[in-house]
Hints:
The chain is 18% helix and 33% strand. It has four helices and 18 strands. Strands 11, 12, 13, 14, 15, 16, 17 and 18 form an eight-stranded antiparallel sheet that branches.
Amino acid sequence: MYLRNSWYVAALSSELEEKLLARRILGENIVMYRTESGEPVALEDSCPHRRLPLSKGRLLNDNIECGYHGLQFDYTGQCVAAPTQNRIPPSAIVRSYSVIDRWGLLWIWMGDAELSDDSLILDIENFGNADWKITTGDVLTFACNYQYLIDNLLDPSHVAWVHRSSFDAPGTGDTPLEISETDKGLVVSRWIYDQKPPPFYAPLLCFEGNCDRLQYYEAQYPSTAINKSIFFPAGKGGPDSPINELTYVMVSYNFVTPIDVNNTRWYWLQHRNTDPGNNDITVQIAAGAKAAFLEDRDVLEEVHIGIANETNRHFNLGLDAASLQFRRKLEKLIDQESES
């Protein structure tokens, strides 16, 4: 069902404070908090005594106190106090998860903690570059399986129908796609030449008139997607064209975290190479992206319901080739992990 030995985004860093935050990730109930020194903590959200969620208790001196009988657990999951007992029960232990703050996001390793490696967290190129600007991040919850979001993030064609007022432009519905495999996943891309820019991007570009545009959709196992939109003045773009002062680059980092088989959280960051000090543009981009992702949600939640209740099996189109290939490889990785 899930690839567990991997990093997933559990929350925006700003969501985690010195109070208990309950989350469900990969079908597991987790409670998170920050210590007084600001370090993030994630534990199994279940007291081993009578399984009351620890998130129903309180934070006490960096420990969680169960709200039923006062058992206290530290950041490692060890019980450190049992006020009703003469000694701490040896089985009073809850699972602790590896968690890391990076890029304004809180990452959690859902598998074997001994295998967690923070170098495996996605790197964001140009993160510290003063000429670039990154949004603070946002999140939406979808009532659908996470794989439908990955399908969508590997499908540049859907913008011609789902995002008519934002990302759609001539060429998005019929320009051929190229699929390539990487050691981490798949890339679907295409150049669209000498066409009008999409409404979302037109006021952001550093030039007027038609553009040469790259649509780049990459998905990395198990559920991270990187979408790049690169714009050149018409006649100046192409696979070998160097970035220059007129080139507009927008990179969308998308982190898809399964809640369970029927629900998903989608976190994202928008990173651009222009106007780093213009907060109005940052707000405009953030609002426009969220509006488009809400359009995706309307479609994908209905897709989830439709396929779950279908009486005749749905079929695939040629544009589904990348998502089907990605699903097959992910299934193999999950099987290999289970066998080991």
